[in-house]
């Protein structure tokens, strides 16, 4: 299993909206960056991810799971763009802010810290464990 981080502006798509989709989950549409799209192409059913509120809050708020592997993005007719479906698994007991992640030496190489603009990014096993520890899991 691999780990990922999905960024969303909460005024466009929030954790609460993701949770409301239930077990069916939702397509992670609208990604128009090749590196982020390629990250989704690498995802497998059951991979876990962090749900991150960008711009407003700037914090990791929950855990999601890939519920459908990469397929054409229904929000465009352009065949270059694909997406996965994700479903909410659980909220974090305590949200982890970007500032906290940047201040944690064990996360110095995390994509969230080094490449804050990438909307879908990998998370290493070690980074996953640190975030879960900081969040109280």
TrEMBL record:
Gene3D superfamilies: ph1033 like domains. It comes from the Bacteria. Coiled coil: none annotated. Pfam families: EVE. InterPro entries: 5hmC_binding (IPR052181), EVE_domain (IPR002740), PUA-like_sf (IPR015947), THYN1-like_EVE (IPR047197). CDD domains: EVE. SUPFAM superfamilies: PUA domain-like. This is EVE domain-containing protein.
